From TrEMBL:
Residues 227-242 have a biased composition (Low complexity). It comes from Streptomyces wuyuanensis. This is Putative ABC transport system ATP-binding protein/lipoprotein-releasing system ATP-binding protein. SMART domains: AAA (SM00382). InterPro entries: AAA+_ATPase, ABC_transporter-like_ATP-bd, ABC_transporter-like_CS, ABC_transpr_LolD-like, MacB-like_ATP-bd, P-loop_NTPase. Residues 6-241 form the ABC transporter domain. GO terms for cellular component: plasma membrane.
Amino acid sequence: MSEPTLEVRGLTCSIGRRTLLRETDLTAPAGTSLSVTGPSGSGKSTLLSCIAGLHTPQAGTIRVGGTDIAALRPSRAAAWRLHTIGFVYQFGELLPELSAVENAALPLLIAGRGRREAYGAAESLLGELGVGEIADSPASVLSGGERQRVAVARALSTRPPLILADEPTGALDESTTDDVCETLFGLPARYGCALVVVTHNPVVAHRADLRLTLRGGALHSPPESAPGSTPDSATDTTTAGA
Ligand SMILES: Nc1ncnc2c1ncn2[C@@H]1O[C@H](COP(=O)(O)OP(=O)(O)OP(=O)(O)O)[C@@H](O)[C@H]1O
Ligand SMILES: [Mg+2]
């Protein structure tokens, strides 16, 4: 069997006097999605920061696309991240003065691709994600749903094996949340990436192949699969797509 896209083993992370993650394991094969819910302040965003190599944990190993991120030299980390991990945040976090296509092309331009190639690829992606018609609109005028789709296109632009989304629907109404979820949770099957979504919305969490809750420093698997179920019993099943 091929190596999983994301493999976390024995991750322990403390900030100040609080241990947010205690010997945590997590695995996400290519083409699968997992969601992480949990109380505010439980450490969900910190978990994503550790996975992205933006926060150094006290212990454990994190491998993304076969690379042990602790072994990355700092001078290589940014370029590695550019090609390995795509990010989607709560408000899209687009550059407002740039158009949708310019935002989506940004990682490719930073990666050194020519303008024609970068804009062509970004425009194709926007079309594939259903927002091709707003390619030339400034990001500042986009609706919340359009913004998030452009953010997804930007995250995908370098075709990274892993997409991390932190509260990607936190600023959207119910119907737009459904639309953005359709796009987001379709990515693993369509593009072969692994997807990790942090959310407070149980309906969004339920869309993932594997649903986990972070509580008391440990990842728990909910006992039942209904959306909104209370995930309060622990198991050691932490492999998406299992
Ligand atoms: N750089 C930092 N310096 C000090 N404390 C931090 C730092 N980053 C996170 N924390 C603390 O770590 C804890 C976990 O934060 P984190 O942002 O990971 O929580 P979260 O589960 O994502 O919460 P939310 O659902 O509200 O986004 C919080 O108590 C937070 O204040
Ligand atoms: Mg957070």
